[in-house]
Amino acid sequence: MKLAIAGKGGVGKTTLAALLAYIYAEQGQKVIAIDADPAASLANALGLPPELVAQAQPIAEMDALIEERTGAKPGAVGGFFSLTPRVDDIPGRFSVIHRGIKLLRLGTVRGGGMGCICPESAMLKALVTHLVLYQNETLIMDMEAGLEHLGRATAGAVNAFIAVAEPGKRSLDTAQRIRNLAAEIGVQTVYLVGNKVHDESELEFIKSHVDGMTFMGYLPFDPAAGEADRSGQAVFDAAPKLARAAREIADKLRLE
């Protein structure tokens, strides 16, 4: 299973990514969780101890490695560099392991943006391609609203694109933008998952704004998620209500 989870900042996509990672690991699958969000909070949602968090250095900040593999210094303007650097050893060397889950942080291209062509972006795109196409592990990728790391060839190998949204118009508009971006790289099926749902009226509001996506379920509002964040606990342990809801979503994904 290869899952790309995206959404507006703060909607809870990282919560869903962490829950699914634990669920699949519990089932005996080899799981690698990829933090591709600049906010980089997946380690906390997984409940990693501080010493492991400190070890999880973002790949985009490894200047010496990027220069070695691409032939150019990060931040360099002009010149030549490899668009297909070697990356097959990176997951094994630079991920950290906690409770059967590998975590790998991609980091952010400094000063870059959509369409940035630089050694850092070449490195990250090659790494994501390797993880999706060749890595024999269940992959959970926690992304921001954009899908910059995914190219057309890579996106075709992703089993599910999941847009996470709160019961609010701005959040659902962002989910629609994710669906449109996915379509641009050849992915026609995007699943919508609601989060922080208080009641039936909020659930119906989300369902009424599916707009070409397939509704896959929701996570209820649960104060335990905030408490887990403050205490450094894994949300999977601290919020059993959310874990139960995520299991239902995982079951539906398995049947798709």
Structural notes for this entry:
The chain is of the alpha/beta class. It is 43% helix and 18% strand. The chain has helices spanning 13-26, 42-45, 50-55, 63-70, 90-94, 119-133, 152-155, 169-184, 200-207, 223-231, 235-238, 240-255; strands at residues 2-7, 31-36, 96-98, 101-105, 138-143, 160-165, 190-197, 214-220. An eight-stranded mixed beta sheet has the order 3-4-2-5-1-6-7-8, sandwiched between helices. Strand 6 (160-165), helix 8 (169-184) and strand 7 (190-197) form a beta-alpha-beta unit. Helix 1 crosses helix 12 and helix 4 packs across helix 6. The longest helix is centred in the C-terminal third of the chain and has 16 residues, at 169-184. The protein is globular.
Q: Sketch the topology as an H/E string, one letter per element.
A: EHEHHHHEEHEHEHEHEHHH
Number of strands: 8
State the end-to-end CA separation: 11 Å
How is the largest sheet built, in terms of strand order? 3-4-2-5-1-6-7-8
Main sheet overview: 8 strands, mixed
Envelope shape: globular
Average of pLDDT:
91
Question: How large is the radius of gyration?
Answer: 18 Å
Question: What are the defining features of this structure?
Answer:
256 residues, eight-stranded mixed beta sheet
Topology:
Blueprint: E1 2-7, H1 13-26, E2 31-36, H2 42-45, H3 50-55, H4 63-70, H5 90-94, E3 96-98, E4 101-105, H6 119-133, E5 138-143, H7 152-155, E6 160-165, H8 169-184, E7 190-197, H9 200-207, E8 214-220, H10 223-231, H11 235-238, H12 240-255
Parallel strand pairs: 1-5, 1-6, 2-4, 2-5, 6-7, 7-8
Antiparallel strand pairs: 3-4
Helix pairs in contact: 1-12, 4-6
